[in-house]
Each structure stands twice: as C-alpha cells, then as structure tokens.
Amino acid sequence: MGLVACIAFAACDTTELVMGELSEVEAEELAGAMMLATFSSTENAQPAPAPGGPQMTPVEYTAEVDTDVQCPLGGAVAVMADVVVNGDTDNPALVVDYSMTQVHDGCVVLSENDREFTLWGAPSLTLDLLVATDGVGVVEWEGSVVGAVAWVTDGREGTCEVALEFGARREGSASFDAELAGVVCGFNVTRTLTVG
C-alpha cells in the first residue's frame, strides 16, 4: 500500500510507512475527514437535469452518475451512483435518493484538527443517501455509509472498516453541522462535524 501510494504520487520521500492502528481520537478524526470528502463528492456528483415537459407536472426520473470528483488537497474519489429524483416542474424543491459507491484514490483530506489523511478504497464505501432541497438554499442529508478505507497518516498506514449513519441540514451557503454515529476502526463514534 505504501509503495503504491508513493508510486502514484511520484513525489514522496524514501521514508517507509509502517503498519499501524489508529487511536480512538484518531479514528474520530478519520471519520470526520472521510465524511467531509463524502459531502464534497455528493455535491459535485449531481445527476443530469430532468427531461423537459409541461409545466406543473410531477417529475420522477432515474439517472446514473459515474465520475471522478477531485479532492481539494489532491487525489480523487470515483463515484458511481444510481439516482432517483422526485419533484415537479413548477417547484425548485427536489428529493434525490442515491445508492452510491465511492472508491478513494489517494484522496487527501484534513480533519477538523488538521490531521492529514490520504485515503484509498479498501475496496470501497457504499452509501445510501437521501438529499432533500427546497431549491432556494436549504439542503438536508440523511444516510448511512459502510465499507472500508485504507489510510495513510503520520508515517503509518492501515485499513479501517466503517459503519456510520449521518444527518445534516444546511441553510444558504454558510457552514453547517453534521451528526455522525456508528463504528470506525472498531471504535464507537458519536460526534458533530462542522462542514464548510
């Protein structure tokens, strides 16, 4: 894993990574950092617009999303999703139901305490996610994520299994809080994460 990461970036030094485990605090930081990447990737992996039609008619359509979303500090997340969209043509409100697979590919993320993690699919994360928006600034997320990620931080590397439920509400473009609860790296995690 460490050698693969080094070859992929072709810019790391000759320091060898050592296999390791995360402490409970580090596992909580990993959960937060991973969820920051998740919120970013879902916002940047939207389905195509609904087909046009008569005004004031219900809209329900399905779409597939298959894209790579760039991580702000490097790397990417491959996102593959089946999406069901519900709304109507006379109202900007939408409900979007995602069945999503995410594969991290050297995605570099920072925790709220500025711990840097580089994430890789091990092999992937599966998300069931419901996103509701009123179309004028309010967005609500509710979902779960299970699977595993491989991580690199502070000269160590390892793999963590993930099983989290989460929910969040954003009003306007301001930052918002997300509630996380579940198990990461064998530790019970319950925390509030500030996004944005």
Describe the structure.
- By secondary structure, the protein is mostly beta strands.
- 14% of the residues lie in helices and 59% in strands.
- Strands 1, 2, 3, 4, 5, 6, 7, 8 and 9 form a nine-stranded mixed β-sheet that branches.
- Strand 2 and strand 3 form a beta hairpin.
- The longest helix is centred in the N-terminal third of the chain and has 20 residues, at 24-43.
- The radius of gyration is 18 Å and the shape is globular.
- The model is unreliable at 1-14 (pLDDT under 50).
Query: Which structural class is indicated by helix and strand composition?
Result: mainly beta
- Count up the helices: 2
What is the domain total for the residues? 1
Low-confidence stretches: 1-14
What best-fitting shape do the alpha-carbon axes yield? globular
Total beta strand runs: 9
Oligomer: single chain
- Largest beta sheet, briefly? 9 strands, mixed
Strand content: over 45%
Mean pLDDT, as a whole number? 84
Helix content: 10-25%
**H and E string:** HEHEEEEEEEE
Distance between the termini: 30 Å
C-alpha Rg, in Å? Answer: 18 Å
Give the gist of this structure.
The protein is mainly β. It is built from two helices and nine strands, in the order αβαββββββββ.
